């Protein structure tokens, strides 16, 4: 086959090229495909099966029908875990995105020190999920912690923020808001896409900064806002480390930091109730899928596409 | 840099210093706890509670020596374990994700759209959903308390986020290069290894940095798979250290926390550019 023929076939595609590509794709995708079977999609299907069993890793799984799924509906501690997780997600994500957008708007294009500010505000996003920061949080919000020392200067009497069930979750919400840097960077990239002429035209027409924000910035940024919202909600549902470290693995005090993932961990890896943990895993998948679906549905009403 | 009317001379003269002051103050408050942790780790243990400030009377390293040797084996082992794990994960991700990305970006195979959709779907798949059967599998084949359950998934391109990042990058490379190589008689393996791979260094750098930071910080899977103190990584060891000491020894806990964050700081300093680009184009965590 001459080189010219080869090129022509590349352009138009042919059975032969496709056949050769199939063969090449098989090898290039072999690791990924094995991962699909053994590490990602395979286990998802397997956990569906395990959800119908009683299994503790030692004795072989025993089929118990829908018991585990029925248990989900009567498990009071799980319902509390759902309440804690929903509160955490629904409060911390909007606050986090509001901070991210606010700071991104302040960091105008071409402003002096932009790179410096961007890095400084982004750093907590990298640190936030570490055990070290959870240790720090335990101290800062403890009875003898940094926060109470600072409050003491102003004559305010503090308390053990983490040991009080009413405020323990708030400290974790603060921690999630603290990591607003990565959505901020996505906002910054989005803001840079908005043509400056829009603002020029608007200010010639006498539009205030306020109405420019509502009528130009926000509509044009809404796809980015939507993207961040979907991503951060999924991300927040998976929070684990901070609640685990702050509560010493218990989800306490009084189950006030019992995230869904923490409860799942306890069922699966402290009590080795693998069947129930599998059912919980599936339920979590359904919850996240539902939230994402609702997000996509609601997007029709507020996300604006400029094309 | 574009200029627009928002940056009129009058507006700038008035608003800019105030804005800078506000941003600096806000940034300082945000980072204050971290700075304070570093300062406190260099104070004698009993002083930590008393001083919420950053200024040190003297430099004390006793917290570091005490914390470093508090557990058996010492923190050096955990650092080494984490480093080995991170290295394995980086190599795994670079090789497997770039291969998969090449196939998705350049090959024309049957059912491509379908497979691509599945790949995108797995980006959203939380580890918590798959951890139970995965653990059953890995414990059956005796991999618990080895690094294999943590590294093998990377070798199998399960970090779909990076596959997607690389697909995006390869799509941006001119196809003419591939075609020229094809005319010269190169097959896909050579086009991949000698044309595409060298050109996608920025995407590989982004993958390296993110894999480094995420693996170093990752706690959930390491907590589950590593239960033998000899195999502990830094986060698991740190947590076990915190659990085993009483609350009064904040000094050494802070010292080891700082030690565990140093590699992240360094990765951040070296890789900032790639981090920012990676997030801006694909929306990382």
Automatic annotation (TrEMBL), chain A:
Membrane topology field: Multi-pass membrane protein
Matching InterPro entries: ABC_transporter_permease, MetI-like, MetI-like_sf
Keywords: Cell membrane, Membrane, Transmembrane, Transmembrane helix, Transport
Lineage summary: Bacteria, Bacillati, Actinomycetota, Actinomycetes, Pseudonocardiales
Signal peptide: none
Family membership noted in the UniProt record: Belongs to the binding-protein-dependent transport system permease family.
Keyword field contains Amino-acid biosynthesis: no
Domain ABC transmembrane type-1: residue ranges: 82-295
Domain of life: Bacteria
One Pfam family in the UniProt entry: BPD_transp_1
Cell location: Cell membrane
Protein name: Sugar ABC transporter permease
GO cellular component terms, semicolon-separated: plasma membrane
Transmembrane segments: 26-52, 86-107, 119-140, 168-191, 212-237, 277-298
GO annotation terms (biological process): transmembrane transport
ATP-binding as UniProt keyword: no
From TrEMBL, chain B:
Signal peptide residue numbers: none
Top-level division of the source organism's lineage: Bacteria
Pfam families per UniProt: BPD_transp_1 (PF00528)
InterPro entries assigned to the protein according to its UniProt record, in alphabetical order: MetI-like (IPR000515), MetI-like_sf (IPR035906)
Compartments where located: Cell membrane
Entry's Gene Ontology cellular component terms: plasma membrane
Membrane topology per record: Multi-pass membrane protein
All residue ranges annotated as the ABC transmembrane type-1 domain in the record: 79-271
A single GO BP: transmembrane transport
Segments passing through the bilayer: 21-39, 78-102, 114-138, 150-170, 191-216, 250-270
Chief localisation class: membrane
The entry's keywords: Cell membrane, Membrane, Transmembrane, Transmembrane helix, Transport
Family affiliation: Belongs to the binding-protein-dependent transport system permease family.
Record protein name field: Carbohydrate ABC transporter permease
Species annotation: Lentzea alba
